[in-house]
Write a structure and sequence with these properties.
The chain is 81% helix and 0% strand. It has 67 residues and is mostly helical.
Length: 67
Amino acid sequence: MKALNIVAAFLGGMALGAAAGLLFAPEKGEDTRKKIADILREKGIRLNHQEMNDLVDQIAAEVKDAE
């Protein structure tokens, strides 16, 4: 069970790191949101415009709290 928690924490950290990299990349926000949406669509996850904005805001808040 402890190993599963470690793996889950590692994967969560990777996802947060990838999201932070996308958010702080020197691209326009619109382009970054499109990239995130494309990645999520490949995984079978579809979000409308408002859900995407909420997701980006949530990730940005988590990144800011982690600093």
